AAA-ATPase
Amino acid sequence: MFSVSNMPSTTSVLSTYTTFAASAMLVKTVLNEVQNLTNQLIPQQLREKILAKLGGLMGNSSSQMTLVIDENNGLPINEMFEASEIYLRTKISPSVLRLKVSKAPRDKTFSITINKGEKIIDTFEDIEVIWQMICTETQKTTSDYDGYLNSEKVERRSIELSFHKKYKEKVLSTYLPCVLEMSKTIKEEDKVLKLQPLGCYHENVNLDHPSTFDTLAMDPTLKKELMDDLDRFVKRRKFYKRVGKAWKRGYLLYGPPGTELRRLLSTVNQSILVIKDIDCSSDFQNREAGGYDQRDSQLTLSGLLNFIDGLWSCCGDERIIVFTTNHKDRLDPALLRPGRMDMHIHMSYCTPSGFKILACNYLGLTDHSLFTEIEKLITEVEVTPAEVAEELMKSEEAGVALKGLVKYLHMKKTEHVEANTEGEKEVRAEDKESEEVKVEAETKGRKTNKRKARRGRSRR
């Protein structure tokens, strides 16, 4: 029977607990020292092999499977390793203590990757996977021209992906392809757009233009149609392959000078081929108009057409071809048909909506007392966005800049009226002159008839 007298005293309980805790700490310290000593004396690969052999002898079959993704797999770079490294940048959590940061001179952002030994836990369709960066150093021996042997340390990197072995098929068939696709998307977003001039194959410059669709003074409806068309084209790779068409799209930008044709080219952040001022670049004018001789041009029309939709059109994916011209009517009809220039975009003169975009970009204004007058004047005169932008840049004070624009538009309107008046005067003068010529001709005709009549009577 339990009695209070048989209970141990508080002092003995505390003494026993202290002894147990001290023993546990001693064992832990000894094990840590042994582990550190083992790590120093035995290479990691050898330790892993020994542990694997011991596990097999003891019948301790692990349920975990590990995929090893080497950085170099007999090729310059293992695509799966690069994709995994890019993908893991988006999965870095506060629990990761060591990161590697780098940046190339032309990169837009920092490149952040996990350091060796760090682990990242990811979840995909209720499957938990563990990523770990592994780095090992090996001795590489090389010989120079004199036959002397040189030894250097080489770091070999790999990424290990661990998961329950029952999910092997799902990881290989679904998860890893998903990692590849996501890494491609991230690379596209970080890609630096380069300007490559014709004929200079080894020279290029970064094209970091500040213009975007948001800052483009363009008709909102037309702008939305263009953006929707571009988005639809980029997403339809499988569709083009299914219907048997080359994955390309042609755009013709036409309009008067100063209507932001060049700025529109800067807003498409993809790999594009640009042929500017096609009516002037080569002899691509209308063959039906006469005077057309392809021998006079180094770049022939047939060569260009073959590149756009001939056999060469199948030798590339996601090809966007942009043509610009100020005179659409001068182009050969063979260039204008769908399949070559699929979408014709008219960059017209400045509109009231385009003016509001320019006012917001240059002056930071969305409304002003002069807006109504300016919008009315813009509908009455032909003024390009470039002309409006130039007037808005003449003063840092919004009111002064807008008054200057009003004055400029009134001047354009006066010039337009005077030009029309002068034109009407010239037309009236030409009509009067032609009327006088007609009267003079009729008078001469009557005189001639009278002389003929008199001659006829005199002969009788």
Notes: Residues 285-292 have pLDDT under 50 and may be disordered. Residues 43 and 336 are 69 Å apart (CA to CA). Residues 398-459 form the longest helix (62 residues).
